[in-house]
Amino acid sequence: MHLVKMHGLGNDFLIIEDHEAQKITSIKDFAISACDRHFGVGGDGVILILPSQKADIRMRIFNSDGSEAEMCGNGIRCLAKYAYERGLVPDPILTVETEAGIIIPEIILEDEKVKSIRVDMGQPRLESGEIPITLDKERIIQEPIEILGKAFYFTAVSMGNPHAVIFEIPDQWQTYGEAIEKHPLFPRKTNVEFVRCLSSNQAEVKVWERGAGPTLACGTGACAVLVAGALNQKLNRKAEIRLPGGSLTIEWSSKNQHVYMEGPAQEVFHAELSEEVYELWTLHRA
Ligand SMILES: N[C@@H](CCC[C@H](N)C(=O)O)C(=O)O
User: Sign of the C-alpha dihedral, residues 261, 61, 44, 77?
Assistant: First the structure.
């Protein structure tokens, strides 16, 4: 099986095209084994590039625990670069069908090379039913929650996938992140962003991802931080979101309310997975 490893700010993915993906019997088991950093290839998730009836191509994203997510911001930049450079799409502006709807990445070229990818991420969803969250309130903005004996305030934003944004970075943020991910308030679990605003144009963020744990970056998470920051008058509608793996520029347009994310994507290596390894992984998971 042929796969390509890519990353967006250190948030890393195994990219697999449709004809190769058809060889996989259980994508959940495959994602767990392949993403293992010791016994597998290593990655935060697996991305499948599939044909689409509604857009140029379709993306499916599976976290390293095998769960499927609706959207992935860093992943869609990787997919866009992959698809453009291999001629899977004709134009630098492409449409991608995701479980969160149609998303539109635009390849930004410099000297005919891909410099960055700017993605129209669509409008954020703020209604509690759309997050989803089981609180009887229209929107969840600076809502108190007690986690492991500590009081937090969080703002809930969906970028197709759920995010809980907290304007504080506690020492034990990973422990709190894991507990919030699985809190019963979130029936589909949640990604968690811990934020320190450095100014109205810059924020530092630590991310605990649903289904993957701490990652070096999260594109949808950065978008959720900007939206939550603007809603709480902590950030302007355009800001640099600094993640452990690097920065993303995020803008929430006041014209169409769409969120735009710009950042890089990098190819790391190609791999051929032997039948022997695939069988070993299958046995290991059985
Ligand atoms: N890292 C991604 C988000 C991947 C999915 C997420 N873990 C979820 O389950 O929602 C990003 O860059 O957005």
Answer: negative
